[in-house]
């Protein structure tokens, strides 16, 4: 069996590579531009079961060839990170829209089982927590670039559902909720690597807004194992699933816990959103997945264990500093 992972050098993608190498005997091909993905995410692997292609999901003929050789596809390549989306809006839109259409079109030829990575951003600024898959989406104006990402991911979902309905594509859509863990970079504004790096450097942790906003942090190892199980479960095909741990944490509590677990002397500084991002910036206040559908389908859900996540990230960053 041969598996294609687009975005396989990325944070989630590289953990999916680890998982599939350990749990299956598949040959794995990854397609990545190595822009937000990094070769170092795969550097710990030396195996002839892994092939790496440096290329872009917007390259239709390359995608057609690679998908044509695959027995299953995980499409994780996307423009990611709030700051990245704001700084590169056009590139982000095109990567997320053209890339997904290329993958789906190619997969439809042989009805190759395909996983499409979506995001909890799809729910937008809905206040109706916890979010269930059939809940309404609430977005701000197009002048606020954040909603562009949510819109592309929602469009990807519509495309995938269309390919399922009209071309019988066995496709599963997973909405990832704040997936975190080792190898995630703070470079694009993600909060846990940023706080851990600040705490280890003895700098103040920078909380945006008043810090009462919540997120449901999910360990990347749980996320990739659920991703694999969903694609191999026929009942899940043609369906959308939240992939996240129930149990939200406020950003204030997160900052305190990072300081406690690192034993850091760092303080905390609150920064207004307008200063952290820009004037038009809006962000969801609370975010929590309803995991009933996932539980009903797989019989299990990710565990909410913030300490396990933080300990893994702190251990990784500490060993990098001392290496
Ligand atoms: N955040 C913060 N300080 C930082 C980075 C992020 O307070 O240095 C906040 C951010 O405003 C959001 C939460 O942490 O409320 C999670 O941010 P992240 O970018 O990790 O994920 P998001 O949920 O925004 O996609």
Structure report:
The protein has eleven helices and 13 strands. It has helices at 11-23, 60-68, 82-87, 89-109, 146-167, 191-201, 220-231, 251-262, 273-276, 292-298, 306-322, and strands at 2-6, 27-32, 50-54, 72-75, 114-119, 171-176, 179-180, 205-208, 214-215, 218-219, 239-243, 249-250, 268-271. The strands form four sheets. It has a seven-stranded parallel sheet with strand order 3-2-1-4-5-6-11, sandwiched between helices. It has a two-stranded parallel sheet with strand order 7-10. A two-stranded parallel ribbon has the order 8-13. The structure holds uridine-5'-diphosphate (UDP). Residues 82, 178, 189-191, 194, 206-208, 213, 215, 251, 283 line the site of uridine-5'-diphosphate.
In short:
This protein is α/β, with parallel strands linked by helices. It contains 11 helices and 13 strands.
């Amino acid at each position: 069996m041969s598996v294609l992972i687009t975005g396989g050098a990325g944070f989630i993608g590289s953990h999916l590579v680890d998982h599939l190498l350990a749990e299956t005997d598949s040959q794995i091909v990854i397609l990545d531009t190595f822009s937000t993905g990094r070769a170092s995410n795969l550097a710990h692997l030396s195996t002839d079961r892994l092939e790496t292609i440096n290329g872009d999901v917007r390259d239709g003929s390359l995608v057609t060839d690679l998908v044509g050789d695959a027995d299953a596809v995980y499409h994780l390549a996307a423009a990611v990170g709030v700051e990245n989306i704001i700084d590169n809006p056009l590139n982000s839109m095109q990567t997320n829209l053209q890339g997904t259409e290329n993958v789906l079109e190619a997969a439809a030829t042989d009805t190759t089982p395909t996983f499409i990575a979506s995001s909890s951003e799809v729910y937008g600024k809905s206040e109706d927590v916890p979010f269930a898959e059939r809940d309404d989406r609430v977005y701000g104006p197009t002048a606020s670039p954040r909603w562009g990402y949510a819109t592309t991911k929602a469009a990807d979902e519509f495309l995938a559902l269309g390919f399922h309905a009209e071309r019988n594509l066995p496709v599963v859509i997973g909405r990832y909720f704040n997936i975190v863990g080792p190898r995630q970079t703070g470079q694009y504004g993600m909060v846990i690597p940023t706080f851990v790096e600040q705490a280890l450097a003895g700098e103040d942790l920078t909380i945006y807004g008043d810090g009462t906003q919540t997120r449901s942090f999910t360990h990347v190892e749980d996320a990739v194992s659920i991703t694999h199980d969903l694609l191999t479960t026929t009942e899940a095909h043609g369906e959308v699933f939240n992939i996240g741990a129930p149990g939200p944490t406020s950003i204030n509590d997160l900052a305190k816990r990072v300081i406690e677990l690192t034993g850091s002397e760092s303080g905390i500084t609150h920064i207004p959103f307008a200063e952290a991002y820009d004037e038009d910036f809006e962000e969801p206040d609370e975010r929590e997945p309803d995991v009933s559908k996932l539980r009903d389908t797989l019989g299990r859900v990710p565990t909410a264990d913030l300490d396990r996540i933080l300990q893994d990230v702190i251990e990784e960053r500490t060993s990098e500093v001392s290496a």
